[in-house]
Amino acid sequence: MTAFNAYESWLGIGLHEQPPTLYRLLGVPVFESRTANLDRAAENQLSQVRPHLDGPHAEVARRLKQEILLARTTLKAPQRKAAYDSMIKVAQAAATPTPAAVPTGPDPTAEPDRNVGKQLGDYRLLEKVSDTTAGPIYRAQHKSGAVVELKILKPSAAKHAEVLKRFCREFQITRRLSHPNLIASFDLAESSGLHYLALEYVGGASFQSILQQHGPLPVEPVVELMIGAASGLAYLHRMGIYHRNIKPENLLVNHRGQLKIANLILAKLDDEKMLNELGDGEALTQPGQVLGSVDFLAPEQAVEASTVDGRADIYSLGCTIYTLLTGSPPYPAKGTMAKLMAHRTEPVPSIRDKRPDVPQWLDRAVRKMMAKEPAQRYASMDEVVEVLQRGGNLSRKLLITIACVAGAILLAVLGVMIYSAS
User: Fold this and answer.
1) Segments in 181-218 forming alpha helices (H)
2) Are 39 and 28 in contact (CB under 8 A)?
3) Distance (Å, rounded) from C-alpha 284 to C-alpha 127?
4) For residue 105, is pLDDT > 50?
5) Which of 33, 251, 324, 392 is least enclosed by beta carbons within 10 angstroms?
6) pTM for this one?
């Protein structure tokens, strides 16, 4: 029996398009701006949902109705639409290859993924999203109809006790968290000898892939999206969790223009209650162990990863913002040791040396985030959020733009709720 899916059954939105953008939700072309067309499209979509408000899927229908109404409201408000469109353009950038990257035809040497279409526990594998050192990541469909991201741990990696424990702990941590800029986790299981983790499907692309294809990004979308990154990290820090691996590869933008923080496998727990509940009587990070990515690694984390706090994430986020705006990491020295030494000894570079259009307040903020000594950085990630929002006396227009992000986040959350209820 085919699982029920409201988007597909009522609105004709296929699995590959879910969760839909606001434009797809209304069934209009991307960046449509004519009010009459938006009203007419929204009413058409609502007419498909209303008959189900009193049926067996009434709760799903109510949520989908609310999502359509919010989409119409957002796209009819000029400033909110402009902010949403700017984020959509960033998200779509990775899906639009540069001319050099456009394939001229099918690759005769490419082999089809034999796992696509197969069943793994309660999940059917739809397509491979990416490969990581720990194992492949698939877009998959649960038997309930929900589309998820499935992280599969390679058997060779699962043989290492620490790797397997970190993989399992990522689920134990993320299932306790609830924040619009964090990826929700649904399931941890083993089938056919494979360990896998089911997560919220984000779609879109990582900032790393966007940079590789399109180079440095515009200032305004970076500021807006980094507010989301800082907000998610501030939430983690309040929960006593430090990410320790913030970099463009672990910051995703979905096709709704919403930022998501990924990959908590290296996270440090600083909450005794959570440590006890997870059974981590002994810390996974041993004294002297180096964790993280050298291009974004705080100086103190390179020396002793087991004792860092939230200020290490502030440093890494500063390096990430620098990279997004310039197209290269702050210390592009060759070799691991040379990069580690540069983080410790070389002056903090100015973004404006490469991007004169970057406002001075943002350059100052990033340089403070990247201060060599933790005590010289912002005291907390909440302070980073405040600085990015204020932006050196941000104009009222930009404040409205930032407020729009909350509307887009709410719509994305509603979409996830619809999946769950379906």
Assistant:
1) 207-214
2) no
3) 33
4) no
5) 392
6) 0.72
What would be the CATH architecture of the domain defined by 205-391? Answer: Orthogonal Bundle (1.10)
d(CA 201, CA 207): 16
Contact assessment for residue 68 and residue 38, using Cβ atoms and an 8 Å cutoff: no
Q: Which residues, in sequence order, are bridge partners of residue 150?
A: 138, 198
Distances (CA, A) of 299 to 61, 335, 337: 51, 16, 12
Q: C-alpha distances in angstroms, 7 versus 67, 111, 323, 418?
A: 11, 32, 37, 9
Domain boundaries, the chain: 6-104+405-421, 119-200, 205-391
DSSP class of 247:
S
Please check whether residue 40 is in contact with residue 94, taking contact to mean a CB–CB distance below 8 angstroms.
Answer: no
Q: Are 208 and 249 in contact (CB under 8 A)?
A: yes
HEC string for 23-39: HHHHCCCCCCCCHHHHH
Distance separating alpha carbons of residues 30 and 340, to the nearest angstrom? 44
Q: Tokens 């069943």 label which residue?
A: 119
119-200 and 205-391 agree in CATH topology: no
- 96 or 386: which leads in pLDDT: 386
Token pair 């059917």 is found at 124
Angle at 350 between CA 349 and CA 354, to 5 degrees: 110
Give the bridge partners for 205, in sequence order: 253
Axis-axis angle for helices 396-421, 58-76 (nearest 10): 160
Strands 136-142 and 185-191: what pairing? unpaired
Q: Is 240 exposed, middle or buried (0-12, 13-18, 19+ CB in 10 A)?
A: middle
Give the sheet arrangement for strand 259-261, strand by strand. 205-206, 251-253, 259-261
CA distance 294 to 316: 10
- Which CATH code is given to the segment(s) 119-200? 3.30.200.20
Q: Would the pLDDT of 64 be above 90?
A: yes
Percentage of the chain exceeding pLDDT 90: 52
Q: Which amino acid is at 88?
A: I
User: How far is it, in rounded angstroms, from Cα 312 to Cα 183?
Assistant: 21
Q: How far, in Å, CA of 5 to CA of 13, rounded? A: 9
In terms of C-beta density within 10 A (0-12 exposed, 13-18 middle, 19 or more buried), how is residue 202 classed?
buried
Angle between helices 310-326 and 381-390 (to 10 degrees): 30
Cβ proximity of 233 and 251 under 8 Å: no
The helix or strand, by DSSP H or E, that contains position 160, with its residue range, turns out to be none
**In contact, 148 and 188? CB cutoff 8 Å:** no
Residue 251, beta-bridge partner list: 261
